[in-house]
Design a protein that fits this description.
Helices cover 56% and strands 20% of the residues. It is an alpha+beta fold. Strands 1-2 form a two-stranded antiparallel sheet.
């Protein structure tokens, strides 16, 4: 079933609780999507001795929202890993640029 496969993809992008606990020992995560999959996700990265954490809500519900969350998660990763950013404002700005560029690229592909 495609929705179950989408759930597996979305689950794969979420940091495992074991990793979260490694850096944020006193933390917990309550993640309860309304549907099987959703546009909400959390993200974590460790860079230069800093722990970066985000809770995000992407537009959309169900499978479309989940797919947007995958694109946004990838953009967050690229902002930190490829561009070396650690300042939250700069990460969000670059993430937005990457997401907009990705959606424009797919728009152009559809026109061809």
């Amino acid at each position: 079933d495609s929705i179950i496969y989408a759930k597996r993809i979305q689950s794969a992008i979420l940091p495992p609780m074991k990793v979260v606990k490694e850096y944020l020992k006193e933390s917990f995560i309550l993640y309860k999507p309304k549907d099987v999959v959703a546009g909400d996700f959390y993200w974590m990265e460790q860079k230069n001795g800093k722990v970066l954490f985000a809770a995000a809500d992407c537009t959309g519900h169900g499978v479309p929202g989940a797919m947007v969350s995958v694109v946004c998660n990838n953009a967050l990763n690229r902002s930190v890993r490829e561009h070396g950013l650690t300042n939250p404002g700069e990460i969000l700005d670059r993430t937005r640029e990457i997401v907009v560029k990705e959606f424009k690229k797919s728009e152009e592909d559809v026109k061809d």
